[in-house]
Amino acid sequence: MEQIVQQIEAYKQEISAFEPKNADELEQYRIKFLGTKGIVKAIFGEMKQVPNERKKEFGQILNAFKQLAEERYETFAHLKDAAASGTNDIDYTLPAEPHRLGTRHPISIVRNKIIRIFERLGFTIAEGPEIEDDWHNFTALNLPENHPARDMTDTFYINQNPDWLLRTHTSSVQVRAMENSKMPIRIICPGRVYRNETISARAHCFFHQVEGLYIAENVSFADLKQTLYHFVKEMFGENSEVRFRPSYFPFTEPSAEMDVTCFICGGKGCSVCKHTGWVEILGCGMVHPEVLRNCGIDPEKYTGFAFGMGIERITMLKYQIKDLRLFSENDQRFLKQFETAL
Ligand code: PHE
């Protein structure tokens, strides 16, 4: 037994001095000492030779030796990892994970289509804040405080400042444009607007609009009709007709609501148009002289028209979507259907 213990001592020195420079040397070491045919295993095999009364003592020596051999190996295990990351075990021939393309939201599809039609007519896009002050959303638009038409929309006010509110229409952007722009003005204002409505299939507390404004010298109602007629032909097809019905908005005079031939039944009458052959899609009119004056524009020199439409309404008609809430629920099963639409 003394001989084996001496041998172990020699191995221990060899192990302590072992300094591998690379993964190969480490592997040689592993095979030599820790492999199935390695030295540690072989020496454990010597246990049989040891007389019973010394087995305990020898067992301790063996365990300490094994532990030393293993620890030394672990000290340099990083060499093995470095070598592995250098080798290329990625299989480039495997088929890749499919890249799923997102789909456009139906509101975006319709909004973009509306914008593109007006852009071709020379309208540029104007944007403004969703948190507005009373002046831009109401007062400048000929809706002074206590004006009954303020009740046409239920407004969200902001506690911090009674002058602040969430815009109820993007006409507020038109006011900003009139205050700042040089003549002529030819803009469309797409954006989100807010009204304090109880949420249901037919109403929501926010929705999207595209409003338009054209101000120059000698702009007439005929220009308004021609522009919107062109828009309708582009948007809903050559066979669409329009009709104007007198209406009221405080910021336009005269005012009208415009209907188009029902694009589901082509005017024959169906459930979408409630068997009238027509669907209402926008409000419009000649900008009220008082509004021009409020924005520093001389109504004797300039005139203009404005219009506004709800994107949700047009989208619902177009795709026969029955519930407004679908637009804001982010349900993939709904949203995916519009991939190739329009
Ligand atoms: N601002 C109106 C609305 O939100 C729409 C409109 C715009 C009507 C311009 C006439 C002229 O309902």
From TrEMBL:
Entry keyword Nucleotide-binding: yes
Co-factor note (free text): Binds 2 magnesium ions per tetramer.
Keyword terms, alphabetized: Aminoacyl-tRNA synthetase, ATP-binding, Cytoplasm, Ligase, Magnesium, Metal-binding, Nucleotide-binding, Protein biosynthesis
Domain of life where this protein originates: Bacteria
GO terms for biological process, alphabetical: phenylalanyl-tRNA aminoacylation
InterPro entries recorded: aa-tRNA-synth_II, aa-tRNA-synth_II/BPL/LPL, Phe-tRNA_ligase_II_N, Phe_tRNA_ligase_alpha1_bac, Phenylalanyl-tRNA_Synthase, tRNA-bd_arm
An example molecular function term from Gene Ontology annotations: ATP binding
Subcellular location: Cytoplasm
Family named by the database record: Belongs to the class-II aminoacyl-tRNA synthetase family. Phe-tRNA synthetase alpha subunit type 1 subfamily.
Name of the protein in question: Phenylalanine--tRNA ligase alpha subunit
